[in-house]
Design brief:
The structure is a homotrimer of 322-residue chains. With 322 residues, chain A is α/β, with parallel strands linked by helices. The first copy, chain A, has two domains: 3-146 and 302-320, Rossmann fold (3-Layer(aba) Sandwich), CATH 3.40.50; 148-300, 3-Layer(aba) Sandwich (Rossmann fold), CATH 3.40.50. Chain A contains 13 helices and nine strands. Chain A has helices at 3-7, 25-43, 67-78, 99-107, 123-130, 148-162, 180-191, 221-225, 239-242, 249-256, 260-263, 286-289, 296-320; strands at 56-61, 82-87, 113-118, 136-142, 169-173, 196-200, 216-218, 230-233, 271-273. In chain A, helix 2 packs across helix 6 (148-162), helix 3 (67-78) packs across helix 13 (296-320) and helix 6 crosses helix 13 (296-320). The radius of gyration of chain A is 19 Å and the shape is globular.
Chain lengths: 322, 322, 322
């Protein structure tokens, strides 16, 4: 997949948003700065700007989601877009139409932007390769590949609380192997020149060739958390339990759960993040999740501003290249 | 549950709308008067006012509903709100997230108002206790506890047709025991100083301590309807049949169904109400439901104006107490 | 069903849109001309006009649909209507309410326009017979009876590519018997004075009294396609296979599938249409569907303009007859 070409216009502006790979420091910073300006929109009493007025955003969710779908929908509403929500289970795909035919039919409805979540890695790229010029695709999570808006809202949260990335040590903890969130976060942290990126996981939950990702690998959580500025906990998919990759929930918590005792290993002002939905008592203790170092709910709030930023940058890149 | 404190601002204005209990005559009258002004909005050709422009209303329905969900959605649209509909079955709760975590996540999306229907009594209060200042909760039905907007649209209907409450005799007929609608109606009628409130039901469908509710209890329907001005029929939940609380549908209709013969016992200008959906031939005869004393469809229409009124009062109370 | 009276105001303007039967050449041409003006709206950057501002359109889909439901929703959005989507499976009908009660309750919510798809032939007429003056019904497909907006978008497509109808030969191919689309197309083509209308199908998939429809019947596809200007392929409902009406998918394709070889029998500039969703390799070869004579995706695009046209004509007829 040639991400760089696919995601950017000839002038280097954002055309699709498919993965963090292929984007550079300047674009990621531009997204963060633009999102910063939108936080003031969502804070004020009338939370609307007319940037996407008369544009249509289609939400294509092939996997269930509350948080991501809702924040994309709210972002589009607050930019004044028209929104088409498509429940794919009840759609024409049940009549045997192929995914590509479904896409082309929706495109024929003059949709301006597709927000797509799909269980297959590469699906968002596939869509982007096949849409007409002027139509954009935003990846809301594709298989185990990428979840780039989640990664950018995480970067936004880190920058809000820590101001910069260069002197930070960030630990990502949990099921790295199956996590599109982790994959996108690692790329973003590295592009933003984060001082040190650590991944903390049992060997069975590490991706192959973890050593090529530009991260430090830890199998011991206490060591992995030592003196970090940011802890990002990942959701443990309970179905991994049955696959014999993990001993038990209790044992997992003992080894890789974030308890308040274990949080002491990190810097005293470390922040705790989680993409949600969290399993309390499995990967994170309730007292930590609700504690004053947790910024988990702020991540959700920032997610709307970040998605508004990406959508508005894509629309403005289209204006300059009609 | 300390309803009074929870529902009102320090200045005594409406902050949440959870139950009729805890509200006083002045506030209920204010709702009715405000709704009166909105009936003209919904009658006119362009049915929109900008009162909730830039605000987000989330519809959280844990129980299926057409009438109540649709009228809340239309009320919010006609006030120009942005609306987020959440199908809770496909939401993150399927991933094991707790209700409170779901609420906090939604709240982090800067929702201004939650409309909640939930099968557990007390759920709306629970939500209201946990939301941030500035966020409001509207109860669209919680278990067997309360359905306050339904009660207020019923009060609106009565006032429209009968002008006042003081000299009226009102009979509520049917399964009082399991009805959140009846519970809220009884409170509202008493607060509004209704002349006489009667409940008509078999002993098995009466709530415990019915005598403490400020009502007259009748087990004979002919006596219960005698000379009343208003008849409110309740929906008979068919699942009560299996619980041995009732003999049979036919026998129920014979004893407590509203036939045109039985309607003669009421005043000649009595109005017939029903919260819907009605079981024709079980609790109410078709000819009565479609007859000229029935105001059942008017109730639905007034429901939009009443919900607009409650939403607009809540928004304006927030403005004065930011 | 007295369509003429039901669909038109006393002045002969469009009040409901239920079936092509009962409409005349002038009205169909008016729809096509009005749709022409809306194609420029949907082509421009801000795809919105305020024609339905403050009006409420309810989408009542009792059958699953992506294409039709989405294009109706987009048409209503682009006319600035408020939209209420009703998932009928989760609605009050599950509580045992009759269809007519559901309709009357929705009507009491001051819905201005109902878009209805229902599995029963005649359901849209039934609704139109029972709504109040001022409320309109648009048929989005009723059983095997009619799908008039589909037929009009097909007429629009033909006129766009062929400028007129009088000198054209049009072949409709496939399961005519069970197709509400074919039925509406045949009526529209005849009202618009199409030179020749052919239907091409095996005897088991012909309607009774096909000879009374004003069409030429062909059982041999090569003969049926000879020198036609327009080919309309119909979707083959796979469930017909099991009913012994058809030998096999392979045999069906051999006899009635549109291959590139067979396309040679038509005029060299013939256009290929399909209402979608298409079964590639069953009724139409992929190379034809994606070939340069195919206008299948253009049909989808034109469908929005045609639906905007019908909605706007209905609203303006209401204004003149309040």
């Amino acid at each position: 997949m040639n991400n760089a070409n696919l995601q950017l216009t000839d002038e280097g502006k954002l055309k699709h948003f498919l993965s963090i790979e292929g984007l550079n420091h300047a674009i990621l910073t531009d997204i963060l700065d633009t999102a910063e300006s939108f936080t003031s929109v969502t804070d004020r009493s009338i939370k609307k700007v007319p940037i996407l007025r008369g544009k249509t955003v289609a939400n294509l969710f092939f996997e269930a989601s509350t948080r991501t779908r809702s924040t994309f929908e709210l972002a589009a509403q607050r930019l004044s877009a028209d929104i088409l929500n498509l429940n794919i289970n009840t759609s024409a795909t049940v009549k045997g139409e192929s995914l590509l035919d479904t896409l082309h039919n929706l495109e024929a409805m003059q949709i301006d932007m597709f927000v797509i979540r799909h269980q297959d890695s590469g699906s968002a790229h596939f869509f982007a390769q096949h849409v007409h010029p002027g139509v954009s695709v935003l990846n809301a999570g594709d298989g185990q590949h990428a979840h780039p808006t989640q990664a950018m809202l995480d970067m936004f949260t880190i920058r809000r609380y820590k101001q910069q990335f260069e002197n930070l040590s960030v630990a990502i903890v949990g099921d790295i192997k199956h996590s599109r969130v982790a994959r996108s976060q690692i790329h973003a942290l590295n592009i933003l020149n984060t001082g040190e990126v650590r991944i903390v996981a049992p060997p069975t939950l590490l991706p192959k060739q973890a050593d090529t990702l530009g991260v430090q690998v830890f199998h011991d959580m206490n060591q992995g958390l030592r003196d970090v500025d940011v802890i990002i906990m990942l959701r443990l998919q309970k179905e991994r339990m049955t696959g014999a990759l993990l001993p038990s929930e209790k044992e997992y918590f003992r080894q890789f759960g974030l308890s308040s005792e274990r949080l002491q290993f990190a810097k005293h002002d470390a922040i705790v993040m989680h993409p949600g939905p969290a399993n309390r008592g499995i990967e994170i203790e309730s007292s930590v999740m609700d504690g004053n170092q947790s910024v988990i709910l702020q991540q959700v709030t920032f997610g709307i501003a970040v998605r508004m930023a990406v959508m508005s940058m894509i629309v403005s890149s289209g204006k300059e290249n009609p």
